[in-house]
C-alpha cells in the first residue's frame, strides 16, 4: 500500500488514509481480506437495507487499530443481534490452538469484559493423540490459558476411548481415519462440555469452513445437515491458516477445499454467497429427520441402537476396522437401510448448541 | 457402497454418511467384478438386463456404464428414462406443439432424437387407428444462433454449422419438423444492424465474465420463448441432463441463489408462457455421449472460444468428482431435489374439454406431487428467478431521481445486481436503454418494490457514508 504523509480530515473514498479514522496510515497489506470483510459487513446489513455497492467502497484501506476495532465490533454485533448468550452462562470455547480459536478466545474474553456479557468462559481442547501435530498446538492452548486467564480442560481420545489417532491409523490405515477422528471428536467435545458443565460451545469456524460444509453436504446427499450448518460463531477469517492434519492428504474434503480456493480467487464473495444460499434453502418437511434415542452401550445420544462412536470402537477392539464404515454393515445394519440420516446428523440435532461436524 | 471401493484412493467419508443409493445408470458398482476385458472368465460377461447378449465396451474405458449393458438394453434403458420423465410429468400431450431447443451438443441431440421417435411412434399409431381420436403432437426445432455474441464477424465455420443443423433436421422426418434459426440479437429492437449493435453494447456493459455468460443464458431463454409464442408452440424441450443440472446446483449455490435453485432443476418449469420441460433430467452426460457414439447421432460443434468463468470451474470440479465417484452427479441432483419446489414447477391444469380426459387426469396426478410448494409473487426481471418476499428494498436516493433503470436495477435479485448489472449509474442507464424489450417489460409489470427510506440506525453500522458524489 502506498504510504503518504498523513493529511488530516481528508474525506473517504479516494483518500490515502485509513478510511475509518482518516488519520493513521493504512497498515494492512491484504486488500482481498478487507474486501471480504467489507462484503461481509455489507451482506450482514443487506437484509435491512439496500446499499449502493460501488466497487470503490470495497477497496478499503484500513489501519491496524481500526481494523481491530472493526473486527471486534463486528463480532459484538453478531453476538448481540443473534442473542447468542445470556448473562451467567458457562461457555466452552473449542480451542485447537490454531489462529481461529486463539482469536476467538481472546476476542470473547475481551468483549465479555468490555460489554459485560457476564459469561463464564472456559477453554476446551481435544487431544486426538497425533504426535507432531496435536501436541504442538496443545502447547499454544496451554499458553492461552495463562495469557487470557481462562480455565482449560483437555479431553483426550486415549482417556475417552482407549485409542489415540496414531494407534487407530496404525490399525486401519489412511483411508477411513478421518471418519473415526470426526466421530470421536464430536463426542469428545460434547463430553468435555458436559464435564465442564457448560451451557454452550463456541467454535472458531470461519466462513470458509461453513461454505465448505454446505458444499460437502450437497455433494454427499446429506440434506438434513444443511439445516444445521449455520453455526452462530460467524467469524470472518483473517488469514488463510492451513496447518493440515498430518493424516489428511487424501481427505475428500480436500477436493472441496481446493475448489473453494479457486473459486475465491475468481470471486471472493462467493464464500459468503454459499452461506447465503445455504440459509435460503427450503428443505421439504417430509425429509426424514432422525429420531432421538440413547446408545445402549454408552448412554450417549443416538438415533440407532448404538451410537456411531461405539460402533467404530467395537470395530477397532475386535480387529474389524471396517465395522461402521460403508453402508448396511455392522450392528445397526437393519436400521441403516431404512433411516437415511445417520448418527452424525442426530448428534448435531441433539445438541443444544452449534457444535458442528466439520 | 456408492464408491468404487478398490480404485478410489481418497479417504473420503465412505461410511453411513454417504447417503447416495447406487443408481442403475451411473454407479460403477462394486458388483462390477466382471468388468473390462482382460479379467477372468470371458464367458461370464453378460448384459445385466437381458442376460443374453454381451455388454459393449468403449475403448479406453467408458467409466460407469462400461461392460454392463449390451447396446440394445443400454439404448432402451436410456429411452425408458426419457419416456418415464415425459409421461409421469405430463410433459407432452397429444394437442401440444413442442419446440426442441437444439444447441448441437450431444444432450440436445439425444433430446431431439427421442422426441422425434416419440412423435414417429405416435404418428404410426395414429395412421393405424380407426377413429383417429388422439392427434399427434407437433415438433419444431429451435437453433438460437449466438455467434453475434461470440464471434467478431461472419464466420465460415459458423455458416457450415448452420448448414449442418439444417440438413440434420431435414433428415428427421417423417414427420417433418420446422427449423427456426434464430439469431440471438433478434430479441433486441430495431433492424438487424441495430440489433447487433445493441447486443454488443449490452454484453460489453457486463464486466464480470460469469455474469456475461449467465446473461447470455437469460437472453437465450427469451429467444426460445419468443420463437414459441410467435409460432404457436406450447412446450419448450431442453436437453438438460443430470450432469448439467448438478453443475447448476453448485453454481446456483455459489452465486447466492439458494432460494431460487429448486425452480430451475425440476422436470417442469411453468414460469414461462411456453412451459419448459426437461425430459433428460435423469440421464447422465456420459450416457448421452455414449448413445451418440453408439447410434452415430451427429452432433455439431460450434466455433466458440471457451470462457474462463465460475461456470467452467464448476464443470471441471464436478467432472473431477464424477471421475472419483460415478454416482456423484446423481447424488448432487437428488440432494437438491429435496429442496421444496415452487408452485410453477408443474404443468398447469388444463380445463379445456377438447383435451382428452386421459391427458387431463395424468396432469392432475402429477400436480399432486407438489404439495407444500412455494408460491412466489415476484421475480427478478433479469433472470426470472423467484424472489424472497421478505426482502425489503430501501434505497437512499430521493424519490425524484428514481429513473426507470434505477427501478429496474433495484427489483433485480442480488446475484444479478452483483454479476450482471453495471455498478455505475450512467453505465446502468446505457445498459438499460439497450436491453431487449421483453426484459424491460418484465420489470414494469408490477414487480417494482416499494421504495422505503433508509432507517436511521442502520447508518451507524456503515463504515463509509453513502458516496457523496451523487
Automatic annotation (TrEMBL), chain A:
Region (Disordered): 324-346
Keywords: Cytoplasm, RNA-binding, Transferase, tRNA processing, tRNA-binding
Tagged with keyword Isomerase: no
Biased composition (Basic and acidic residues): 337-346
EC numbers, comma separated: 2.7.7.-
GO CC field: cytosolic tRNA wobble base thiouridylase complex; mitochondrion
Location, primary (coarse class): cytoplasm
Enzyme class: transferase
One Pfam family here: ATP_bind_3
Single biological process term from Gene Ontology: tRNA wobble position uridine thiolation
Pathway: tRNA modification; 5-methoxycarbonylmethyl-2-thiouridine-tRNA biosynthesis
Domain of life the protein comes from: Eukaryota
Annotated Cytoplasmic tRNA 2-thiolation protein 1 C-terminal domain residues: 293-323
Ranges where the tRNA(Ile)-lysidine/2-thiocytidine synthase N-terminal domain occurs: 91-224
Job of this protein: Plays a central role in 2-thiolation of mcm(5)S(2)U at tRNA wobble positions of tRNA(Lys), tRNA(Glu) and tRNA(Gln). Directly binds tRNAs and probably acts by catalyzing adenylation of tRNAs, an intermediate required for 2-thiolation. It is unclear whether it acts as a sulfurtransferase that transfers sulfur from thiocarboxylated URM1 onto the uridine of tRNAs at wobble position.
Protein family (similarity comment): Belongs to the TtcA family. CTU1/NCS6/ATPBD3 subfamily.
PANTHER family noted in UniProt: ATPASES OF THE PP SUPERFAMILY-RELATED, CYTOPLASMIC TRNA 2-THIOLATION PROTEIN 1
Protein's recorded name: Cytoplasmic tRNA 2-thiolation protein 1
Species of origin: Punica granatum
From TrEMBL, chain B:
Primary location group: cytoplasm
Gene Ontology cellular-component terms listed: cytosol
Pathway(s) of this molecule: tRNA modification; 5-methoxycarbonylmethyl-2-thiouridine-tRNA biosynthesis
Cross-referenced SUPFAM superfamilies: Adenine nucleotide alpha hydrolases-like (SSF52402)
Keyword Oxidoreductase: no
Record keywords, A-Z: Cytoplasm, tRNA processing
Gene Ontology MF, one: nucleotidyltransferase activity
One of the Pfam families matching this protein, by short name: CTU2
GO BP term, pick one: tRNA wobble position uridine thiolation
Subcellular location: Cytoplasm
Family indicated by similarity: Belongs to the CTU2/NCS2 family.
Function: Plays a central role in 2-thiolation of mcm(5)S(2)U at tRNA wobble positions of tRNA(Lys), tRNA(Glu) and tRNA(Gln). May act by forming a heterodimer with NCS6/CTU1 that ligates sulfur from thiocarboxylated URM1 onto the uridine of tRNAs at wobble position.
Record protein name field: Cytoplasmic tRNA 2-thiolation protein 2
Organism: Punica granatum
Lineage: Eukaryota, Viridiplantae, Streptophyta, Embryophyta, Tracheophyta
Gene from which the chain derives: LOC116209269
Amino acid at each position: 500500500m502506498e504510504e503518504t504523509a498523513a493529511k488530516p480530515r481528508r474525506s473517504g473514498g479516494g483518500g490515502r488514509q485509513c478510511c475509518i479514522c482518516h488519520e493513521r496510515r493504512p497498515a494492512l497489506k491484504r486488500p482481498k481480506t478487507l474486501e471480504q470483510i467489507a462484503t461481509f459487513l455489507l451482506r450482514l446489513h443487506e437484509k435491512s437495507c439496500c446499499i449502493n455497492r460501488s466497487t470503490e467502497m470495497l477497496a478499503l484501506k484500513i489501519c491496524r487499530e481500526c481494523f481491530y476495532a472493526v473486527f471486534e465490533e463486528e463480532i459484538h454485533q453478531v453476538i448481540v443481534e443473534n442473542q447468542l448468550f445470556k448473562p451467567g452462562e458457562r461457555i466452552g470455547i473449542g480451542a485447537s490452538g490454531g489462529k481461529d480459536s486463539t482469536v476467538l478466545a481472546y476476542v470473547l474474553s475481551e468483549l465479555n469484559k468490555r460489554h459485560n456479557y457476564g459469561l463464564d468462559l472456559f477453554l476446551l481442547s481435544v487431544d486426538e493423540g497425533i504426535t507432531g501435530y496435536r501436541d504442538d498446538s496443545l502447547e499454544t492452548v496451554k499458553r492461552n490459558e495463562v495469557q487470557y486467564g481462562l480455565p482449560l480442560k483437555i479431553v483426550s481420545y486415549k482417556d475417552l476411548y482407549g485409542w489415540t489417532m496414531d494407534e487407530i491409523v496404525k490399525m486401519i490405515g489412511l483411508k477411513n481415519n478421518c471418519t473415526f477422528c470426526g466421530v470421536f471428536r464430536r463426542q469428545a467435545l460434547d463430553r468435555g462440555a458436559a464435564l465442564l458443565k457448560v451451557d454452550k460451545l463456541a467454535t472458531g469456524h470461519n466462513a470458509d469452513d461453513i461454505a465448505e460444509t454446505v458444499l460437502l453436504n450437497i455433494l454427499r446427499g446429506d440434506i438434513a445437515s444443511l439445516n444445521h450448518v449455520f453455526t452462530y460463531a460467524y467469524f470472518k477469517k483473517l488469514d488463510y491458516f492451513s496447518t493440515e492434519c498430518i493424516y489428511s492428504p487424501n481427505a475428500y474434503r480436500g477436493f472441496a477445499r481446493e475448489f473453494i480456493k479457486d473459486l475465491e480467487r475468481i470471486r471472493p464473495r462467493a464464500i459468503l454467497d454459499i452461506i447465503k444460499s445455504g440459509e435460503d434453502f427450503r428443505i421439504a418437511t417430509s425429509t426424514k429427520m432422525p429420531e432421538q434415542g440413547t446408545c445402549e452401550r454408552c448412554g450417549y445420544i443416538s438415533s440407532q441402537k448404538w451410537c456411531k462412536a461405539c460402533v467404530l470402537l467395537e470395530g477397532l477392539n475386535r480387529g474389524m476396522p471396517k465395522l461402521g464404515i460403508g453402508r448396511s454393515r455392522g450392528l445397526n445394519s437393519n436400521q441403516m437401510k431404512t433411516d437415511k440420516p445417520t448418527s452424525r446428523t442426530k448428534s448435531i440435532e441433539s445438541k443444544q448448541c452449534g457444535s458442528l461436524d466439520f | 457402497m456408492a464408491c468404487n471401493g478398490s480404485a478410489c484412493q481418497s479417504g473420503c467419508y465412505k461410511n453411513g454418511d454417504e447417503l447416495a443409493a447406487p443408481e442403475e445408470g451411473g454407479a460403477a458398482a462394486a458388483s462390477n467384478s466382471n468388468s473390462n476385458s482382460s479379467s477372468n472368465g470371458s464367458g461370464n460377461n453378460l448384459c445385466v438386463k437381458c442376460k443374453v447378449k454381451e455388454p459393449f465396451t468403449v475403448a479406453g474405458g467408458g467409466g460407469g456404464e462400461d461392460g454392463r449393458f449390451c447396446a440394445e438394453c443400454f439404448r432402451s434403458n436410456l429411452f425408458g428414462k426419457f419416456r418415464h420423465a415425459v409421461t409421469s410429468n405430463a410433459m407432452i400431450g397429444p394437442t401440444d406443439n413442442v419446440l426442441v431447443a437444439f444447441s448441437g451438443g450431444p444432450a440436445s441431440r439425444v433430446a431431439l432424437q427421442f422426441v422425434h421417435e416419440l412423435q414417429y411412434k405416435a404418428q404410426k399409431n395414429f395412421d393405424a387407428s380407426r377413429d383417429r381420436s388422439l392427434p399427434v403432437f407437433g415438433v419444431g426445432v429451435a437453433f438460437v444462433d449466438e455467434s453475434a455474441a461470440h464471434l467478431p464477424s461472419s464466420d465460415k465455420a459458423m455458416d457450415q454449422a448452420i448448414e449442418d443443423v439444417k440438413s440434420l433436421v431435414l433428415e428427421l422426418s417423417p414427420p417433418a419438423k420446422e427449423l427456426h434459426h434464430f439469431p440471438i440479437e433478434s430479441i433486441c429492437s430495431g433492424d438487424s444492424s441495430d440489433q447487433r449493435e445493441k447486443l454488443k453494447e449490452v454484453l460489453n456493459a457486463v464486466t464480470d465474465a460469469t455474469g456475461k455468460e449467465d446473461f447470455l443464458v437469460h437472453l437465450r431463454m427469451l429467444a426460445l420463448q419468443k420463437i414459441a409464442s410467435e409460432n404457436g408452440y406450447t412446450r419448450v424441450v431442453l436437453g438438460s441432463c443430470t450432469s448439467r443440472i448438478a453443475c447448476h446446483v453448485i453454481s446456483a449455490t455459489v452465486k447466492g441463489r439458494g432460494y431460487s435453485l429448486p425452480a430451475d432443476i425440476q422436470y417442469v418449469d411453468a414460469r414461462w408462457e411456453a412451459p419448459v420441460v426437461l425430459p433428460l433430467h435423469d440421464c447422465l452426460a456420459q450416457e448421452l455421449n455414449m448413445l451418440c457414439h453408439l447410434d452415430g447421432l451427429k452432433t455439431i460443434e460450434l466455433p466458440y472460444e471457451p470462457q474462463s468463468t465460475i461456470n467452467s470451474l464448476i464443470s471441471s470440479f464436478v467432472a473431477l468428482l464424477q471421475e472419483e465417484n460415478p454416482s456423484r452427479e446423481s447424488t448432487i441432483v437428488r440432494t437438491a431435489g429435496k429442496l421444496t419446489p415452487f408452485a410453477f414447477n408443474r404443468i398447469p391444469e388444463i380445463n379445456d374439454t377438447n383435451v382428452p380426459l386421459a391427458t387431463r387426469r395424468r396432469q392432475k396426478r402429477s400436480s399432486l406431487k407438489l404439495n407444500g410448494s412455494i408460491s412466489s409473487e415476484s421475480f427478478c426481471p433479469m433472470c426470472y428467478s423467484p424472489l424472497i418476499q421478505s426482502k425489503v428494498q430501501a434505497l437512499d436516493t430521493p424519490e425524484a431521481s428514481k429513473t426507470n433503470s434505477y427501478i429496474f436495477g433495484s427489483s433485480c435479485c442480488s446475484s444479478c445486481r452483483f454479476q450482471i448489472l453495471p455498478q455505475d449509474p450512467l453505465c446502468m442507464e446505457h445498459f438499460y436503454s439497450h436491453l431487449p424489450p421483453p426484459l424491460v417489460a418484465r420489470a414494469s409489470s408490477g414487480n417494482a418494490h416499494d421504495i422505503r427510506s433508509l432507517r436511521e440506525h442502520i447508518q451507524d453500522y456503515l463504515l463509509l457514508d453513502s458516496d457523496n458524489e451523487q
